[in-house]
Every structure is written in structure tokens, then in C-alpha cells.
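Customer escalation, tier 2.

The customer says the design service returned an amino acid string that "doesn't look like it belongs to this structure." They asked us to rerun it and document both sides in this ticket. The original C-alpha cells are below, unchanged.
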């Protein structure tokens, strides 16, 4: 993003009043398809990766794209560092095969090293070799980004098995989450080192807590995510994405130390502000599939105007209730732009 976009995003995230910015979470599930390019080429050709991101930013200068210049391979980077098999395809994001086939394998697990393990060193190398090109084009890379500990655990163990393990093997899951939390922190700090001084934000994506009761959230999610956010300076902008069901524990989310919550369209903005006590800047929450992909531009704009109206003076960043999904057409992107004038 441009420095001036980051300045406005940061001010809004920290509670400043004013016209809400428009921001979209964009990554490889949507971008290669939108631009009509092969996913493998996008991942493997640094020049194509650079030109693709630059084209998007130049085409939609009114939008603050989050996290901006994101090096990712679908959701494969973090689990690949633990040996999960990754299946790549030319026309969609990769699949990740669980690597913890038995619960006992957790006992010997140690935190990953971003300098050597899985796809992490490849991603860091891309940041290191392309960052000056990005800066020279007038852009910055303000965020470091990672999947959260429970999200990573679900890829390694399988979501059904993980949900069972929470009840049947809680001690082992706590051990797993401690190892994964340390890995996430190492991974974020390695990105900071590769990118440099432009970083002053942390972006964590983890939907798995949205499958939990409040009691389970407080035991298995909150303390580990808080440890991640607390590992970085307090004045940084801290963003949490969860487009599953955060209603049971919405009142607890400000305690994570975050500034911004990107949340589901199934939880109204008015209700979300009330549940969080107005202590967070909300980023959302136009329906990403029903409207952004399958709706008309008129319906998208109407929903966006409803979100803007529901803010009622609270800090808001207009967005989708999640990331940009495959198939979202340009006309619906333009409809979001038209909502902010």
C-alpha cells in the first residue's frame, strides 16, 4: 500500500474519527484468477508476482489492500515447515495434507525454524529480493502476517481430529499450541527482519476459534493468540481475522491487545460494536460470497452503505466479512468503491 493509505488505516485502527477507509484482504485464492494467470506461475515467478500485485494496486488506488505485497502460497507456508505434504495446482490454491497422524507425535514436536524449514525460507527470500523494487515503486510493506496457532494445528492434525482432541487430549493440545505459538512468533519476526523498518503491523488469521464455545476459546485460543500479539510493540497496528462465529467470545476479543477485528457478515456491525464494548475498530462486513461474488453491484453497494450507517461514529474500516473470494467480479469491487464516494 501507499504510505498515505497506511497512515489513514493506522489512524482509523487506533480510533480516530473520519471517513472510513475501504480495505480488502487479498491473496492467491482470488488474485491469480482475477488477473487470469496460472497459480503456479504466480508462486514461482518473482517478476510475475511483483507485476500482478502492482497491477492490482494501480487498478484500484482507492482501496487499501491488506496485508499488502503478501508472500503466501495459499495456507501452505506454516504447515509445510512441519512436514505437511502440499499439493499444488495450476488453477487454485494448494491443498495441505495433515502430518500428525497420531496424537502421540505431538510429544516430540519442536518449533520450526523459518530460516530452513518448509516454504518459509523461500517466502523470506522473495521478500528480501523484491522489497526494494516495491519501495522504489512508491509502496510500503507495513504488515507481517501469519495463520494463528489453532489454524495451523487444524492443518497439521485435521480439523475433525483437532476438535476431538480438545476434549480427549487437552494436555497434548496445550503442548502443541505452545510449540505452534512459538513458531508463529518466530515466523512473524523473520518476516520483520526480511522486510525491514517499514513493518509496524501484525495480521493474524485464525477462524478455528469460531468453532468453539466461549469456555474452549478462553482455554485453547485466547492465551496463545494474546502471546503472539504481545510479542510485538504495543503501538503497532494489530489485526485479527476470524470470519467464523465470534459471538460467544466477542466481549473477550479486546483483551487480545488487538486494534482491528475483521469478522463475519453473519454478525451485524451494530451487534459487534455492542458486544466488543466499542473498544475495537471493526473491519467488515459485506457478505463475501452471497453478495461480493454472487450478488449484483447494486446489492453490494446497498450492503456497504448499511455497514457504514451501522458504525454510528465508531471506528470502521469498510471491507468484506472475510477476504476477497474466488470469482468476485470487478463490478462488485467497484460497487464497494462507490459506497465510500
Amino acid at each position: 500500500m501507499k504510505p498515505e493509505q497506511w497512515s489513514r488505516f493506522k489512524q482509523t485502527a487506533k480510533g480516530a474519527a473520519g471517513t472510513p477507509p475501504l480495505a480488502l484482504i487479498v491473496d492467491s485464492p482470488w488474485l491469480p484468477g482475477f488477473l487470469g494467470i496460472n497459480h503456479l506461475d504466480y508462486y514461482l515467478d518473482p517478476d510475475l508476482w511483483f507485476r500482478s500485485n502492482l497491477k492490482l494496486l494501480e487498478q484500484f488506488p482507492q482501496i487499501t489492500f491488506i496485508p499488502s505485497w503478501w508472500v503466501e502460497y495459499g495456507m501452505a507456508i506454516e504447515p509445510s515447515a512441519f512436514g505437511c505434504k502440499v499439493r499444488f495446482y495450476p488453477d487454485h490454491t494448494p491443498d495441505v495434507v495433515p502430518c500428525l497422524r497420531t496424537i502421540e507425535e505431538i510429544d516430540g514436536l519442536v518449533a520450526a525454524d523459518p530460516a530452513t524449514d518448509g516454504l518459509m525460507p523461500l517466502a523470506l527470500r522473495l521478500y528480501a529480493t523484491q522489497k526494494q523494487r516495491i519501495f522504489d515503486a512508491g509502496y510500503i510493506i507495513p504488515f507481517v502476517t501469519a495463520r494463528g496457532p489453532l489454524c495451523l494445528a487444524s492443518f497439521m492434525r485435521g480439523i475433525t481430529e483437532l476438535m476431538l482432541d480438545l476434549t480427549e487430549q487437552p494436555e497434548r493440545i496445550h503442548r502443541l499450541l505452545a510449540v505452534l505459538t512459538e513458531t508463529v512468533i518466530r515466523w512473524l519476526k523473520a518476516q520483520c527482519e526480511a522486510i525491514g523498518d517499514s513493518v509496524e503491523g501484525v495480521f493474524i488469521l485464525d477462524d478455528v476459534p469460531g468453532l468453539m464455545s466461549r469456555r474452549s476459546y478462553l482455554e485453547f485460543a485466547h492465551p496463545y493468540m494474546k502471546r503472539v500479539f504481545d510479542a510485538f510493540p504495543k503501538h503497532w497496528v494489530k489485526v485479527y481475522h476470524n470470519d467464523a462465529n465470534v459471538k460467544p467470545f466477542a466481549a473477550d476479543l479486546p483483551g487480545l491487545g488487538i486494534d482491528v477485528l475483521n469478522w463475519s457478515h453473519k454478525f451485524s456491525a451494530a451487534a459487534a460494536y455492542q458486544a466488543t464494548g466499542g473498544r475495537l475498530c471493526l473491519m467488515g462486513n459485506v457478505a463475501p460470497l452471497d453478495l461480493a461474488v454472487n450478488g449484483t453491484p447494486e446489492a453490494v453497494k446497498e450492503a456497504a452503505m448499511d455497514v457504514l450507517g451501522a458504525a454510528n461514529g465508531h471506528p470502521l474500516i469498510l471491507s468484506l466479512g472475510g477476504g476477497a473470494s474466488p470469482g468476485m467480479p470487478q463490478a462488485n469491487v467497484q460497487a464497494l468503491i462507490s459506497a465510500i464516494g
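Tier 2 assessment: The sequence is consistent with the input. The chain has a mean pLDDT of 97. The longest helix spans residues 170-195. Sent an explanation to the customer and offered a walkthrough call.
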